[in-house]
Design a protein that fits this description.
Structural class: alpha+beta
Strand content: 25-35%
Helix content: 25-40%
Radius of gyration: 18 Å
Number of domains: 2
CATH architecture of the largest domain: 2-Layer Sandwich
Shape: globular
Bound molecules: flavin-adenine dinucleotide
Strand order of the largest sheet: 4-5-8-6-7
C-alpha cells in the first residue's frame, strides 16, 4: 500500500508542476497502480480539479485529458464511431469495469508499462502526448524515454486511421502475454507489438493492409521478443503473426463498415 503524508488538490498546472519537481512528491491519478507499489511519499498531487477528465473532438483529432478514465474512453460514442469500436474492444479486457473507472489514460501512458494494451492501441493510431513543459511529443518518441517529472496533460489522437487490437492472456483479467495493434490509414497499415514483454513499439509501417501470412511471419522474425514468467520468447514469436493477421483482417472489416462515421 502507498502512504502519502500530505494531499494537495492542485489548483493549477503551474502548482502541480512545481510540487512535482520534488522527489518526495508524486502525481496520483487513478492510484490503481501506485497503491500497489508500497510507495512512501511526502506529497500526493491530485490533478482532478483541473478539467483534465474530458474527451474533446475537433475537425482533425480527439483531445483526451490525462485524467479521463479508461472506462470513459471505452464507452465514448464519438471515439468508437470514429475508430470502428476499437476502444470498446481493446479496453474491455483490462481487469474489470470498476477498475477501468479508476485507471486513467494519463497514468497508463506515463507509466509506459510493457504490457499496456492502451499504449499499443494509441501507438497504432499515431497518438501524440502533450506535456506541460515540453508541449506535444509523438507517443512513439515518448515510449522510448525514461520517466521524468513533467506532467502529461492530454493525449491527441488524429483522425484518419482504423485500428484493431488482439491480445493473448493466460486468463481473463490478467495482463497480456502479447498484444498486437494494427491500424490502416491513407499511407498503408501499421503494426505495433506490445507485451513483448518490453514496451510496445511499431514493428511495421506503410505495409499493404492485405499483407499475407508470409509478410507477418517475416515481421515477427525481425521483431525483438523476450522471456518472462508468462511466456517464452519463442512462444511470443510464434503467436505474433497470427495476431497480426487477425488484427489486419479486423481493420479491413471496420474500414468497410464505417467509412462515413469519422468526419
Ligand atoms: C492489477 C493491475 C492490472 C492491470 N492490467 C492491465 C492490462 O491488462 N492492460 C493495460 O493496458 N493496463 C493494465 N494495468 C494498468 C492500468 O490500466 C493503468 O495504467 C494503471 O493503473 C495506471 O493508471 P492510474 O490512473 O491508476 O495511475 P496511477 O497509479 O495513479 O499513476 C501511475 C503513474 O503515472 C504517473 N502519472 C499519472 N498521471 C500522470 C500525469 N498526468 N502526468 C505525469 N505522471 C502521471 C504517476 O505519478 C505514477 O507514476 C493494470 C494495472 C493493475 C494495477
Amino acid at each position: 500500500m502507498a502512504v502519502y503524508k500530505n494531499y494537495v488538490l492542485a489548483q493549477s498546472l503551474d502548482e502541480a508542476y512545481a510540487l512535482n519537481q520534488k522527489k518526495s512528491s508524486v502525481i496520483v491519478a487513478g492510484n490503481m497502480w501506485l497503491r500497489m507499489c508500497g510507495l512512501r511519499k511526502q506529497t500526493a498531487i491530485d490533478l482532478s480539479a483541473l478539467g483534465l477528465d474530458r474527451i474533446e473532438e475537433n475537425e482533425d483529432a480527439f483531445v483526451i485529458g490525462a485524467m479521463t478514465s479508461l472506462r470513459d474512453m471505452e464507452t465514448h460514442e464519438g471515439l468508437n464511431a470514429c475508430f470502428g469500436g476499437v476502444f470498446a474492444d481493446a479496453l474491455k479486457p483490462i481487469v474489470g469495469t470498476q477498475f477501468r473507472r479508476g485507471a486513467t489514460i494519463g497514468g497508463s501512458v506515463y507509466s509506459r508499462f510493457g504490457f499496456s494494451d492502451v499504449s499499443a492501441l494509441l501507438l497504432a493510431l499515431d497518438a501524440k502526448v502533450v506535456l506541460y513543459q515540453r508541449g506535444e511529443v509523438s507517443l512513439a518518441a515518448y515510449q522510448k524515454e525514461a520517466w521524468d517529472r513533467d506532467i502529461l496533460t492530454h493525449v491527441v489522437i488524429p483522425k484518419g486511421r482504423r485500428a484493431a487490437v488482439q491480445s493473448v492472456r493466460l486468463s481473463a483479467t490478467d495482463i497480456p502475454v502479447l498484444v498486437c495493434a494494427a491500424s490502416v490509414g491513407p499511407d498503408g497499415a501499421r503494426i505495433v507489438l506490445g507485451a513483448r514483454p518490453a514496451r510496445a513499439m511499431v514493428v511495421a509501417d506503410g505495409i499493404s493492409p492485405e499483407a499475407d501470412a508470409s509478410v507477418c511471419e517475416a515481421i515477427a522474425q525481425a521483431a525483438s521478443f523476450g522471456t518472462n514468467r508468462r511466456a517464452s520468447e519463442a512462444y511470443r514469436r510464434r503467436v505474433a503473426p497470427v495476431l497480426m493477421m487477425r488484427a489486419l483482417m479486423a481493420c479491413s472489416e471496420t474500414q468497410k463498415d464505417g467509412e462515413e462515421e469519422c468526419k
